[in-house]
Amino acid sequence: MARMRVTVIGCAGSFPGPDSPASCYLLEAEGFRLVIDMGNGALGVLQRYAELFGIDAICVSHLHADHCADLAAYWVARQFTPDGPRPPIPVYGPRGTAGQAKPDLGPGSDGIGGGPGGQLRFDVHELEPGSFGIGPFLITAERMNHPVETFGFRVEYDGWRLAYSADTGESDALVRLAAGVDLLLCEASFLDGQDTRPDLHLTARQAAAHAARAGAGRLVLTHLVPWNDGDRTLAEAATAFRGPLSLAASGLVLGPGVPAPPG
Ligand SMILES: [Zn+2]
Fold first, then answer.
1. Position 196 confidence tier, pLDDT thresholds 50, 70, 90
2. How many angstroms separate the alpha carbon of residue 59 from the centre of ligand 1?
3. pTM surpassing 0.90?
4. pLDDT for 96-150, tens place per residue?
């Protein structure tokens, strides 16, 4: 039976950590490879799990550097190959994605790769809330609660359902997006008692409460800021979610038939 496979490429929150790039996830089914987010440091580690030009589509949740910085790095890779530029692949993102996707190569460089935005390397589609197909996947995008336009994603394939929070503060839309999913990949940037502000990120406890409200089968906490203690993140989340619970890690494989690692 065809199965979807999810590999965590990067799960560090806000900036790359010593053990992980910033946000990046590789989703595979039927030989199709979809990358969700391309944070700083992601392109290097991504090549351990996928051939450099084996990516079929990219979805970017929002334009903070820890979610999109390596889009420009990938543009360079696809533009300046010894065999000539690679054909465009679809890139989905919020308004302004085209401008982020092409690096600033200096005066006179606008003719390279199709002008501003570099649309010839990337075929950029601006996201709106709703459902659409990318390769074999059914994607649903919803706006999250973050200072810039940010989309969370629900991804369905062959009856298995994943939701990804991207970056968000408390959000009823996230609960709707994750309703009944097999796996919620939810950001947990803060710990209880940290000097947080609303409408920015979730604490581990809030992430767990969202998973419980959504009825998610399993919760994997991600967007883990390197200075937070992992054990404390898990302990605080465990107070609000009773199902299988674990921390994301670079290289972690998730999907139907993949057992949950010990929390
Ligand atoms: Zn952000």
1. confident
2. 15
3. yes
4. 998 888 777 776 555 455 554 455 689 999 999 999 999 999 999 999 999 999 9
Q: What is the pLDDT of residue 172?
A: 98
Å from CA of 167 to ligand 1 middle: 5
CA of 73 to the centre of ligand 1 (A): 19
| DSSP letters spanning the chain | ----EEEEEE-BSSS--SS--BSEEEEEETTEEEEE---TTHHHHHTTTS-TT---EEE-S--SHHHHHHHHHHHHHHHS-TT-PPPPEEEEESTTHHHHHS----TTGGGTTTSTT-TTTEEEEE--SEEEEETTEEEEEEE-SSSS--EEEEEEETTEEEEE--S-SS-HHHHHHTTT-SEEEEE--B-TTS---TTT--BHHHHHHHHHHHT-S-EEEE-B-TTS-HHHHHHHHHTT--S-EEE--TT-EESTT-PPPP-
CB neighbour class for 87 (10 Å; exposed up to 12, middle 13-18, buried from 19): exposed
* Centre of ligand 1 from the C-alpha of residue 21, in Å: 15
Distance 146 CA to ligand 1 centre (A): 7
CA–centroid distance, 71 to ligand 1, in Å, is 15
- Please give the distance, rounded to the nearest whole angstrom, from the Cα atom of residue 246 to the centre of ligand 1: 22
Q: How far is the CA of 39 from the centre of ligand 1 (A)?
A: 10
* Rounded distance from Cα 107 to ligand 1 centre (Å): 30
